[in-house]
Design brief:
This protein is mostly helical. It has helices spanning 5-18, 41-59, 64-91, 107-135, and strands at residues 27-28, 34-35, 100-101. Strands 2-1-3 form a three-stranded antiparallel β-sheet, with no helix packed on it. Helix 1 (5-18) runs antiparallel to helix 2, helix 1 (5-18) runs antiparallel to helix 4 (107-135) and helix 3 (64-91) runs antiparallel to helix 4. The two termini are 25 Å apart.
């Protein structure tokens, strides 16, 4: 389970979505106050759900198709989270609420990249198992 590369990718996703949004700021308002994920309950819940989905995908290491589906769901959740961040940063006009975008807005992008890499490795394992079954 741990020796597979997709498990390492999923562990990186867990670290990115469970811990990092609470250390790096998502944005700063016009007063200079840094906004973190714990300031908004929906954003923190989305990050935790993403971490739990990655953990579930690690546990499903014997069922590769289910692992693949869990990663796809996680990618969709991260796309919604990324869309919310883009909407939040572009919809607000001028310096009313969002003054400076933080590095935390990039966390869903990095999560999606590692989830795609994990799905690629899962597909590779599935193709290897199918090729071995053909030889029998």
């Amino acid at each position: 389970m741990i020796q597979r590369i997709q498990t390492l990718y999923l562990l990186i996703v867990i670290l990115l979505t469970a811990a990092l949004p609470f250390w790096v700021n998502l944005w700063s308002d016009s007063n200079g106050t840094h906004i973190y994920a714990q300031n908004d309950i929906l954003i923190s819940a989305a990050f935790y759900v993403s971490a739990v989905l990655a953990l579930i995908a690690i546990v499903l290491f014997k069922k590769r198709q289910n692992q693949f589906v869990a990663n796809r769901l996680n990618m969709i959740l991260n796309l919604f989270l990324l869309g919310f961040f883009v909407y939040r940063s572009l919809n607000l006009s001028g310096e009313t609420l969002v003054s400076e975008k933080g590095i935390g807005m990039l966390i869903p992008i990095f999560s999606i990249v590692f989830l795609v890499l994990a799905n690629k490795a899962i597909r590779k394992d599935e193709d290897l198992v199918k090729s071995v079954d053909r030889l029998r």
